[in-house]
Amino acid sequence: MTDRAVSDISASSRIARASPTVALVRQYGLPLSVLALAIILRAFAGTCANVSWLLTIGDKVLAGATPYVDVVEVNPPISILMYLPAVLIGRALRIPPETVVTSLVILATLASLALVSRILAAAGSSAAASAPLSLALALFVLLIFPVYAFGERDHIAAIAVLPMLAACAARVRGARVGLISAVLAGLGGGIAIAIKPFFVFALALPLAYAAARSRRGLRGFVSGLFTVEAVTAGGVALAYAASIIIFFPAFLRVMLPLATEIYLPNRLPLTELLGNPSSCLFAIILVISLVLDRKRPVAPMTRVLKLAACGFMIAFLIQDKGSPYQGYPAVALALLACGRSIADGIAGWSQGERRAAAVIRPALAAGVLVIVAGIAMMWLQVNHETAGLVEAARRVAPPNPKVIVIGDRLGLGHPLTRELGGRWVGRQCSLWITDYAETLLQDEPPDAGRRSRIESYVKFDYDMLREDIIANRPDLILVENDRWREWIVQHDELARLLQSYREADRLEGVSILLRKADSPA
Predict the structure, then answer these.
(1) Residues in Cβ contact with 130 at an 8 Å cutoff, skipping those fewer than 6 apart
(2) pTM, rounded to two decimals
(3) Using one digit for the tens of pLDDT, what is the confidence trace for 361-410?
(4) Interval 168-196 mean pLDDT
(5) What confidence score (pLDDT) does residue 504 get?
């Protein structure tokens, strides 16, 4: 055998050995690049105010505080419980719990998508989540697209429901879903419902669609509603509801009446909600998807995602607060559905469908979708933190200060307190009770009985603030704006307490008050 022949054989052998690696890179190169980018971006991103506050509650609970008694939180117990593992892991590993939250969300996303892929692959779906474009899109939508909403309960719920949606898609195809996969999918669905009961719509619509496609009449439709994953999700939600009664009676006794009287009645008008950026972005993406799917077969998973997005939009309207993070699940799932349609179009073209329409339509849709996604990310980046306030407070405050806020904005004290290495010494996150109550008294003058109840909650809010300042002697007090400075003047005892403080700085209307050196510690 000649040297050239030996050389050719060796080269062929190397190519053969390298081909699995090349194939692996081609299949997973794009998704892995998106995942790497997401990790890098999250390393430089901050924690949103809601997550920061719930981590602070976790610290207080682990220190012995009783939820809804020693710390006031309007949301049900799962909002506290779901962030406790991050606090515990952070303490055990001596790393910030914010880092743990990011890591757990990324791991949960990968686990959710792996289960989706398993369910769809077992169902014989040609558009399984492991397809490179679909997987890359999912990683982008779940890990990069949320921006400031990253780690929010709504973000986590969107991740949790995906396997149950895949199970619905599998059943639409008439395929069986393995018992373990169905139970795990149901657990995710149950967690989403426990996070916010309104999220049941995001599961109910796809479930009803899958049951209706059974073509077995009314009996088949009813039995299709009671799949393993649906029963599991319902069981999780019921078990959680029972645990509130048993382990968190203070939520029912203290917080539920307060929320019913003060929090829930503060609603945005439906017209304002329909004009909200989340609603508009959702509608635009859905229209793009519908136009793209005209006169072509649509994969069951794509249809199921659209229905789930509609369910999340119903939940957004029911919540009637209009916050960007509350609109994230609807916009994200609509984006996933539309992106899958585009990916299917690109796949069809690459497989030999050379008609001009097959190329132009997905390309135009992709271009428009990129623009819409960019606008959506700007909306999801909106927050109520004051730029530069952390740095300004750090310049004048002592190390590890005790902090409290006089104002209604959650983003004023959180995540500022944690970023300063400080300790939050208030029972409430802000004076939101007073703010909401004043809005109710001005906009909807109540009868004498209801007015008395609302005013009692205003006094409750004020008393907590006054008592926390007296008992804990905060080093740093942030006063939100002129409205709250005037509010202080109207409360003589609070004004006297604040005579022990001086204004060290003022930034964008926010007063940074420091305890005077000669005041008692």
Answers:
(1) 117, 121
(2) 0.92
(3) 777 888 889 999 999 999 999 998 999 999 999 999 999 999 999 999 99
(4) 96
(5) 96
Q: How many CB atoms lie under 10 A from the CB of residue 242?
A: 10
Contact 401, 327 (CB under 8 A): no
Of the listed ranges 243-252, 343-352, 504-513, the least confidently predicted one is 343-352
The whole-angstrom separation of Cα 269 and Cα 408 is 21
Cα distance between residue 86 and residue 97, in whole Å: 5
Report, as an integer, the average pLDDT of 53-72: 96
Cα distances (Å, whole numbers) of residue 272 to 62, 323, 442: 40, 12, 19
Nearest one of 257, 254, 262, 268 to 451, comparing CA atoms? 262
What is the arrangement of strands in the sheet containing 501-507, beginning at the earlier edge strand?
423-424, 402-406, 476-479, 510-515, 501-507
Torsion of CA 102, 106, 111, 117, to 10 degrees: 150
Q: How many residues does the chain have?
A: 521
Residue 347: pLDDT above 80? no
pLDDT of residue 216: 67
Which H or E run includes 403?
Answer: strand 402-406
Collect contacts of 105-111 with beta carbons under 8 A, ≥24 apart: 105/143, 105/150, 105/151, 105/155, 105/156, 105/159, 106/35, 106/38, 106/39, 106/42, 106/143, 108/156, 108/159, 108/160, 109/139, 109/142, 109/143, 109/159, 110/35
Paired sense of beta strands 501-507 and 476-479, if any: unpaired
Q: What DSSP line would sit under 448-490, residue for residue?
A: HHHHHHHHHHHHHHHHHHHHHHHHH--SEEEE-SHHHHHHHHT
Q: How confident is the model at residue 447 (pLDDT cuts 50, 70, 90)?
A: confident
Q: The tokens of 479 are what?
A: 């006063």
Under a CB-based contact definition with an 8 Å cutoff, are residues 476 and 401 in contact? yes
Q: Is 402 helix (H, G, I), strand (E, B) or coil?
A: strand
Q: At what angle do helices 200-212 and 153-172 cross, to 10 degrees?
A: 0
Q: Do the strands 402-406 and 476-479 form a parallel or antiparallel pair, or are they unpaired?
A: parallel
Nearest-5° Cα angle at 466, 462 to 467: 115
Task: Tell me if residue 162 falls in helix, strand or coil.
Answer: helix
Amino acid found at 424: W
